[in-house]
Structure formats: C-alpha cells, structure tokens
Amino acid sequence: MKALPTLISSQTLKNLLRTSTTTKIAVLEADLNKQFQKEFQQAHIPQAKYFEQLECTEPTKFIPRGLPETKCFENYLSKLGVSNSDHIVLYDRSPMGFYASSRAWWLFKTLGMENLSILNGGFYNWMKEIQQIEPSKPEEESNEKKGQFKVKFNPSMIKTYDEILKLVSNPKAKYQIADARGANAFFGANAGHIPGSVNIPYTDVFDQSTQQLKSLDELQKLFTKSGVDLSKETIYTCQTGTTASTLAFIGHLLGQKSFPVYNGSFTEWQQRAPAHQIAHSPSAA
Questions:
Q1: Which of 64, 97, 112, 135 is deepest in the core (most CB within 10 A)?
Q2: Which residues have C-beta within 8 Å of that of residue 25, sequence separation ≥ 6?
Q3: Is 269's pLDDT higher than 50?
Q4: What is the Cα–Cα distance from 243 to 186, expressed in whole angstroms?
C-alpha cells in the first residue's frame, strides 16, 4: 500500500476502514487527562481505540505533561492492539481536531513511530461529513489481539530547559523559536516569552469557515510572515508543549526537516529561567 498522507480527510479514513489493506490501520482517539473518555465509550469513530496519552506519565511542577515511563507505555499500547508496524491515525474532540491529537503525534514521533496521520477536523468533522459512529463494546475489547509496541526514543523531537537556556545565553547562537500561545500571553506583562521567539498563535492556523487547518499555501505564508525560515530548524513552544505540537506538525507538513518541541515550554521557563531571560516584547535571535 502506498504511504498514507500525514494529514488525512474524513472520506479517506472512511475508505480505509472499509477496505482491506496490507498495512494495519490503528485509529486512536487521543485524549488528555481523560476529558472525553465517557463520550468515547458512548460513541466514537468505528474501530477506534481510546488513547489517554498521559497514561504512564507523572506530572511535575515544571513539566505537567512529560514523557511516559517506557515499559508501562509499551504495555499500554500493546494492550490497545498497537504495533510499530501499524499506521496510526489520530483524532480528537477539540473544536478543530488538533489539540490532543497533534500532541499525541509529537509523542509518537518522539517515541520512534513514523507512520502517523492526523484526521483533519477531528471527530466533529467526521460527524459532519461521515456520521458513522459506534459505542464501545467491553466484551470485544477484552478479546482484542495484543500488539507489539516498542519505544525507540528519538531525541531530535524534544528540547530541554538546559538546551534552550544555553541557546539564549549565547549571543552568537543562531536559532528559531516559535510560540503558539495567544498574543496576550506572549507579549503580556504577567507572562512573556523566551528571548528571540516569534509568535504564531494556535488559533491562527485554522480556517474558521471549515473548522480545519488552513491550506498549505496559507500556512506557509503565515509562518514566513511570522519570521520562520522553514529551511532551518525551529523549536516550538507554548504553555505546556501541547499547542506547540500543532505548530511542529504544520512545520512537518510544510517540509521542515527539524521541528522539536520544548516540552516544558513556558510553564517551566517562567519558573526556572533568570528574570532577564523572560522577554515581554518582540525580539529576534
């Protein structure tokens, strides 16, 4: 089977689910903190499994949404029937369909998975266009065949506080950092941003009329206008590393080769960085 697109439409997913292929499709409804577990149990996309991406994760003061413990996560995914050879299609129930799913995409990329897609528009676009759903069936889940999932950590997908501090503390360092928080948080006197960052608010990447991502041409213009050179690495950040993952996903869609996420993001930076390393106005590296 030819490679599936990284951004997948509801109609394409429908076709995949009703035709047999040589590659197993694993459809996962991504969630954070089990916000939509009950809704999933009542109705979800056919064949989908519920994926709580903070399973096996211990929150800390600096990083509330960190990486999972390896063995625990491998067991969790294997019990869901997911293997490394699968092609994973992610979706969520956020208004535009990217909040939890793009963070899950980044998580899987960080843990070594390459065959990944996100459903454009998420659950609500599926309901608008396809309208096929099914409830969870516990008796069937207990008989599911286990997968074989192994973590293969990819350090290129993540940046740490120490790495960011080293960059911004070196006046000769050349770097790009893009922040997905809203302008009020980015420029605000009570918030601020990492020195040298540019602001690409999460809400700006969506077409409000379709409730999906903007076109690739529009996204490229948005990133370029914001000061991002897609031919170079960009470190993506936000408040907790979640909406930053959407920007990283878009960077990947636009052909960017290196798009790591600062997982601690501004939650960690605001608590740990020296006061002079918290900027409150536009700046360039």
A1: 97
A2: 16, 17, 47, 86, 87, 89
A3: yes
A4: 14
Give CA–CA dist 199/227, Å, rounded.
9
Domains of the chain: 7-141 (3.40.250.10), 155-277 (3.40.250.10)
Task: Please list the active-site residues.
Answer: 238
3-state helix, strand, coil in the chain (%, to 5): 35, 15, 50
Radius of gyration of the chain (CA): 19
Chain center to CA of 261: 9
Distance of CA 210 to the CA centre of its chain: 20
What's the CA gap between 213 and 97, in Å, rounded? 9
What Cα–Cα distance (Å) separates residue 148 from each residue in 74, 86, 89, 231, 251? 8, 10, 17, 36, 30
Cα–Cα separations (whole angstroms), residue 109 to 87, 183, 209: 12, 28, 30
At 22 the pLDDT is 63
Residues paired with residue 28 on neighbouring β-strands, in sequence order: 49, 90
Mean pLDDT value of segment 251-280: 97
- 260 with 157: CB under 8 angstroms? yes
**Helix ranges, 155-263 (H):** 161-169, 183-187, 216-226, 243-253
Edge-to-edge strands, sheet with 25-31: 7-8, 116-119, 87-91, 25-31, 49-52
CB of 144 closer than 8 Å to CB of 67? no
**205 phi, psi to nearest 5 deg:** -90, 0
Token couple for 34:
């089990």
Per-residue pLDDT at 105 exceeds 70: yes
Cα 278 to Cα 201: distance, rounded to the nearest angstrom: 18
DSSP 80: T
